[in-house]
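Input record (one chain):
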Amino acid sequence: MGKAALTPISTAHLQPIDDKDSPRGRLSLEGMDRALEIPGRILEAAWQIDDNVLVATTDDIPAEDQLHFLLLNSHAELIDHVTLGAAYSTGAFIAAHPEGAQLSFRFFGDTPWTLTVLPKPTFCMPAFGNPRGVHRPFSFWTRLRMEGQPKSGA
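The corresponding structure, as predicted from the sequence alone:
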């Protein structure tokens, strides 16, 4: 078995949900039995990695945009979720081609970011283990490692 690699998926679709309180959408993928409600209104991209799917969405809110990465298993269940965003920052998702299990991209400012899909859960310190602007649900374990060094004010 070779190393896991991110492979683009063209069959993913996100239907925005009309919810003024929270930017959300219904994700549908070929082979999924049901649509899954996830954060974000715009589907930026989706990739297959082993039996999992990595999805990138943005909120489409000027001056408060956020970028969400969600890792789903083959049953469309959420494995991990990480969000990148900062108050009063509008982002534009600009992805480089993935290399193996890593995705290099830019979102806001001049910060190059790297997201790595880890093969198994890895220990992380909540609140202290992430670069500024990176948010995730409280957990001591992650499958999505985000790396970047945003400048002050980004």
